[in-house]
Amino acid sequence: MTLYVIDDHPLMREAVVMLLRRMRPGANVVELDRLGGIESAVKQHGAPDLITLDLKLPDTTGNSGVHELKKRFPETPLAVLSASPASDAEEQCIEAGADIYIEKSSGGLEIGNALRALLSADGQFEELAPTDSKLSKRQKQLIVMLDRGLSNREIADELGISEHTVKVHLWRLFRRLGVKSRTQTIHYARMHGLLAS
């Protein structure tokens, strides 16, 4: 497993690297201080299984880094770690292709939980119910919560998990259904009989 940490702030980069090494002791963690080094790093270390990206790098503007990485590695989970408040940049980052937006001020535990959830795509949340090859029991529960109009915070409180983890679970649900938003999810669920109309 190869994990890429792209951040021009040495202290932040080292902290994320330490988190990832604790989570995946055998993983090859590749550190970059700018996006420009990605090509030679991939030649040397192989394609990434996860990328964490600082939004503001010397060689990126706005969401250009997100766009470029998603174009190169469309299937690789991409976590944006940013000093900007989520209210400022999260929506644009997700629209650009990021899978999750994490504020650097969240603290080690929360950042760790969000990255762990992204890495454990085959974790317990994803276990499929034997009766349905498409969605897990938890994913069906999420659809009902979305239909009820619950916010990520309310879903997190109801399930007893962090808000970042909720975002990861929603990302997985969207990917599984081939949709990009809550509205599309509810529409899909109604069209396919996953919700009582």
Helices, strands, pairings?
Elements: E1 2-6, H1 10-23, E2 28-32, H2 38-45, E3 50-54, H3 64-72, E4 78-82, H4 86-96, E5 100-103, H5 108-119, H6 137-147, H7 152-159, H8 163-177, H9 182-191
Parallel strand pairs: 1-2, 1-3, 3-4, 4-5
Which properties best describe this structure?
197 residues, alpha/beta, five-stranded parallel β-sheet, 9 helices, 5 strands, 50% helix, 12% strand, globular
Task: Walk me through this protein's architecture.
The protein is of the alpha/beta class and 197 residues long. Helices cover 50% and strands 12% of the residues. A 5-stranded parallel beta sheet has the order 2-1-3-4-5, with helices on both faces. The model is unreliable at 122-133 (pLDDT under 50).
Low-confidence stretches: 122-133
Strand arrangement across the biggest beta sheet: 2-1-3-4-5
Structural class: alpha/beta
Mean pLDDT: 86
Range of strand content? 5-15%
Silhouette: globular
The span between the termini is 43 Å
Helix segment tally = 9
Run of helices and strands: EHEHEHEHEHHHHH
The amount of helix comes to 40-55%
